[in-house]
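forwarding from the other thread:

> can someone predict this with manganese (II) ion?

sure thing
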Amino acid sequence: MSSTTRITLSRFLIEQQREGGNLPPQLRLLIEVVARACKAISHTVNKGELGGVLGSLGSENVQGEVQKKLDVISNDILLDANEWGGNLAALASEEMEAIHLIPHRYPKGEYLLVYDPIDGSSNIDVNLSVGTIFSVLAAPEDCSQRVVTEQDFLQPGHRQVAAGYAIYGPQTSLVLTFGRGVFGFTLDREVGSWVLTRRNIMIPPGNREFAVNMSNQRHWAPAVQHYIDDCMQGRDGPRGADFNMRWTGSMVADIERVLTRGGIFLYPWDAREPERPGKLRLMYEANPIGMIIEQAGGAASDGRGRILDIVPTGLHQRVSVVLGSADEVETALAYFADHAGSGEPAAP
Ligand code: AHG
Ligand code: MN
Ligand code: MN
């Protein structure tokens, strides 16, 4: 094979299936369908004002967040693409309160799909990067004989069989893992196919760059304030190095940067809603991104332990996240451990 041969997503998936024998055909087809739906979402996002897709709907989702038109359009694109193919037992989304069962007229498959149709919704109308995040779980075996329930979805992230995200930015790309490394594809719009452009993505260590919404600083637990304060003191402070800050408001975009050049991303607990563990959702944000980060050699923690080991108690449950290169996450966790047991509010 010449080095100029383009490997499309379809070819990559078929080769993965042949080589390892550990990519089941139904999972391969499912990923093809999700990737095709992301292509459709990308075209819709690109149309912007011309497609009448900007702005809000006036409705709220189950989390009490105002739904943007694109949240709902993208949710429906993924739903329509996935329900008839026979690969899924059920699906669930940020934009739907309850799980969605496969209608009786279609065959039921072996997998469960959970997704965030548009991540970074607040960026849609201002023409900044947004994305789609997805997680695939195996349905419990007896699901073929009975009605799937929300309980069937509540599996810890380490049981994900695949995870990925698409990012609709200056380039449209797709990042995927099946638990054997992380691979990146770029959408070739003229041809209409995803082309493999990054193999075995590994997060570079040592990058002094953090992503956190600094406007929430005064509400964080002291441990998080301490960690970020020390980064902000730069070369003259205890970290002995200048740090750069980036915050896009779209986790997918911040994670794309972390995968590309390193650093750390945090969305910690804050005191305004003390009962809420964090902002981001475990099952369709933290788990799939956590799996990708770990597969790229990084670490994904809720500030106490591994995100992928959390046993979910609800579809829309929230969690604190500390994600990034293993060295910097370890440093942050050491700050949090130092504060633990001090009687302070939960860290992070
Ligand atoms: P979503 O658009 O799916 O609700 O997710 C938005 C998330 C995440 O992408 C981002 O990191 C964070 O919310 C932004 O929150 P701020 O409003 O604090 O910037
Ligand atoms: Mn999101
Ligand atoms: Mn969303």
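The first strand starts at residue 56 and ends at 60. thats all i got for now
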